[in-house]
Amino acid sequence: MRKQHCNIWNYINQHSRYRSECLNLIASENLMSPGAQAALATDLGNRYTVGQVNKRWYPGCVYYDKIEKEAVTSAKKLFHAQYVNLQPISGMVANMVAYHALLKPHDLVLSLNVKHSGHYSHGITGILSLFDVRIESIPFDEKNYTIDLEKTVKLIQRKRPNAIIVGTSEFLFPTPLKELRKVCDETDTKILYDAAHVSGLIAGQTFQNPLSEGADMLSMSTNKTLSAPSHGLVACNNEKRFRNNIEHAIVPLFTSNHHAHHVAGLAITLSEFEYFGHDYATQVIKNAQALAQALYKLGIAVLCPHKNFTQSHTVLFDAKCSGAEAMKKLEKANIIVNPFQLPWNHENDPTGIRIGTNEVTRLGMKEEEMGIIAVLISSVLLHRKKSETIRKEVVQIRHAYQTVHYCFNSFQNHIN
Q1: Shortest CA distance to 219 belongs to which of 71, 52, 94?
Q2: Which of 201, 95, 109 is closest to 163 using CA atoms?
Q3: Other CB atoms within 10 A of residue 413 CB
């Protein structure tokens, strides 16, 4: 048993060293600040915090109540929300909570198809199917990689859906929310905006603010561009209409204890975003556009060059070969990406690659480094240089970028 215990710690240490020598470009991952990371190892992780602030099912939460209230206050400010609940334990659970608050059995829901970058939790194969609703696909503009507004407006007017779900797994550009709000007011259609990927850009005030532009409800995971521990959050501006259903969905329907140590880490991250969020989010987008431009100039088929490629953290390109094979070649070079289905792909043979600049930005990289990363990617995918050779270059580059930026780098700084 002692050997097994040592093995586990060896694997943890090996993983940490390995990832410290990689360029992680996965758009759905990020690095926590030292303060948020430390919060996960505190006594809060051992405690039950079921129920709402000052109304817990268990005693001993006097200080945790203060933490959750601080987090809610920050989230309200950053997301322009009147009501925030950060007790869902993941983005998926946040979506379930939102569905319970917004939908009734047999409602008609419009959402993006998976092949058009919709998340599977928004479709018939995911958790939405458990809510006994009818689901139809939102028309998609493949050239501009966003909702086809004209066709969607006509579909809403014709079908009069009860709800529409916007927000994607390949979030390149803002959604035309103001225009959708106008037609949805005519048809009494509610809008749910899944902000999982762009929550940090919204909090940094560099992307559209969904609640200000007409969304009825915001759902998200908190570990992507927001760089908090893996958790969930739901927000709205009509507390009277939605609060009871949201809180009933959390307890007793979809959660019990809601992982207080993760909420503490989220609270720290949100407080840091009030100081550093705008600078971080601005640089994330600059880096994404710089990386996309550099890849494009090197011959990579990056999507949407006519729109400057992206307005978010995400860049998409067509590898013109098996996305899985491209991913494996890059992984051998310590460049971590993931394949994605593009609209013209067969679902079993995606050729798309999705990359994000959120983590490399947190490490302090800027436009110049994006050009270097583009050369490394093209060397592997276009010039077929040996992955082992490129890996040595990646390791050398990463050794200079080990510190998390845009945060308080110690407890003492955080306290002061």
Answers
A1: 94
A2: 109
A3: 11
Domains of the chain: 23-31+277-398 (3.90.1150.10), 35-270 (3.40.640.10)
Map tokens 């709205």 to a residue.
Answer: 236
Beta bridge partners of 146: 141
Radius of gyration of the chain (CA): 22
- Select from 273, 223, 224, 268 the least CA-distant residue to 410: 268
Strand partners, 192: 165, 217
Which residues share a beta bridge with 51?
56
**Which one, of 305, 310, 303, 98, lies nearest residue 206 by Cα?**
310
Cα–Cα distance, 414 to 416 (Å, whole number)? 6
Cβ neighbors of 213 (< 8 A, separation 6 or more) are 177, 178, 181
CB-based burial label for 65 (10 Å; 0-12, 13-18, 19+):
middle
Residues 6+ apart with CB under 8 A from 338: 26, 327, 353, 354
Kindly give the interhelix angle for 239-248 and 91-102, rounded to the nearest 10 degrees: 120
Q: Where are the alpha helices (DSSP H) in 86-163?
A: 91-102, 149-159
Residue 412 has a pLDDT of 46
pLDDT of 179-199, one tens digit each? 999 999 999 999 999 999 999
User: DSSP letters along 151-186, please?
Assistant: HHHHHHHHH--SEEEE--SS--S---HHHHHHHHHH
The amino acid occupying position 325 is E
Give the span between the Cα atoms of 359 and 197, in whole angstroms: 13
Task: Say which DSSP state 344 is in.
Answer: T
pLDDT at 354 over 50: yes
Q: Over 90: is that where the pLDDT of 256 sits?
A: no
